[in-house]
Amino acid sequence: MVLRGYVPTSEETLQTLAALRLQSLNSDFSTHAPFPCLEELFPPHVLHARLPAPRHRTPTKCRGARLRAGLLAGGLWGQALAKQRAERDQRLRGRLREEGASTMAAIVEKWKLLQGMGRPEAMAAYVALVREWPGFGSTLFDVDLRTVRRWCGGGVGAGPQRLWLGIGAKAVSLYKPGEPEPLDSFCYGRISSFGASDSSTFRLSVEDQDLLFETSQVDEIAQLLNTYLTSAGAQQPPRPQEPATSPPDPDPTTPPQGLCPTAGPWQHQPPVGSFHS
């Protein structure tokens, strides 16, 4: 999860984690110790984020200019553009190598400071650093939030919005990628139902709203949620039973209830042909 960028923290902490990993793998620093490649120690996306963003030219509105561009695309102009792209890619690769060498040097310096630390201590220190993130222990899934449908008068909010869906032992949380604090968090008592709307859409009903997520891991999310919800239900003490009473006669002047129901016990509602609980 660290290497895939699912632990939002500073570069300094990521370098320390990499040094602890080296200490765990190779013990004390030595020039003869085998060095893993940087991608096995440090999240690559952090290095790529340092590179300048590619410039996009604003499309011209002049019809004549568009015509000339089209005529020249397969000739000298197209060759010049291809040469420019190749030179730009070469510069970016060189910059990426420089950033990688600088990061590896910083990791090695931190590794040298860990001399004498045993493997169990290095592993414990590694986990202690990762546990500082409040979402530690959650399984994160990349999802696109498509819509938020409210059951009572709230209308429909449209997406898509790329998020992390964190499934933990006590709650479900939504994170903006790279942000340490969740945008929202739902304890399992607030979840009324969940299931697969189709093979790539996961539905999560929380109190008065339906959250629809586009994801390729519908079954994995549902199975994990089912496991945690079953465990949470087993840990709750049984509620005392109340004596049965006859319901009062309905008042014809009272409007019907239940148009906006509160969240009751969670219900797993997969469609036919989907996963099994």
TrEMBL record:
<dbReference type="InterPro" id="IPR014352">
    <property type="entry name" value="FERM/acyl-CoA-bd_prot_sf"/>
</dbReference>
<dbReference type="Pfam" id="PF02174">
    <property type="entry name" value="IRS"/>
</dbReference>
<feature type="region of interest" description="Disordered">
    <location>
        <begin position="233"/>
        <end position="277"/>
    </location>
</feature>
<dbReference type="Pfam" id="PF00373">
    <property type="entry name" value="FERM_M"/>
</dbReference>
<dbReference type="InterPro" id="IPR051724">
    <property type="entry name" value="Actin_motor_Myosin"/>
</dbReference>
<feature type="compositionally biased region" description="Pro residues">
    <location>
        <begin position="237"/>
        <end position="255"/>
    </location>
</feature>
<dbReference type="InterPro" id="IPR002404">
    <property type="entry name" value="IRS_PTB"/>
</dbReference>
<protein>
    <submittedName>
        <fullName>MYO10 protein</fullName>
    </submittedName>
</protein>
<dbReference type="InterPro" id="IPR011993">
    <property type="entry name" value="PH-like_dom_sf"/>
</dbReference>
<dbReference type="InterPro" id="IPR019748">
    <property type="entry name" value="FERM_central"/>
</dbReference>
<dbReference type="InterPro" id="IPR000299">
    <property type="entry name" value="FERM_domain"/>
</dbReference>
<feature type="domain" description="FERM">
    <location>
        <begin position="1"/>
        <end position="239"/>
    </location>
</feature>
<dbReference type="InterPro" id="IPR035963">
    <property type="entry name" value="FERM_2"/>
</dbReference>
